[in-house]
Amino acid sequence: MKKSRTEAFTDAVIAIVMTILVLEFPHVHGSTFADLIVLKDIFPAYVISFIFLVIYWSNHHHISQIIDKVSGQTLWWNNAFIFLITLLPFTTNWLGDNIWAHDPEILYAALFLLANLTWLCMIKNLVKVNAHNACVT
Q1: How far apart are CA 39 and CA 55, in angstroms?
Q2: Domain that holds residue 75
């Protein structure tokens, strides 16, 4: 199976998730820098989420450069990974609205843990599917 469709789809989803992250910011009512104080809780969570998305996108880009093909199982792992990162705007917003509450922190961290475990499973599958490629193994 060719990798180009998977690569393009994942790129598009990550770009959309990045856009939704910033659209979830609360509206700033006012025209001074002091009015930006409403962003004080959400902004750190946004920065962390954005950085992780950039890392995920960069890793996906680099692995796509060295693999030749993907399998059906790879697609399922990739879709599970995408599903998890599409939850990032929700968890980021919930964390930003409840910065000192434990449940949002736990869910936010669990989401990253699950996304990373899913990524690891996808990479293991890609190594198996591309075992013929010396760059992958």
Answers
A1: 24
A2: 4-129
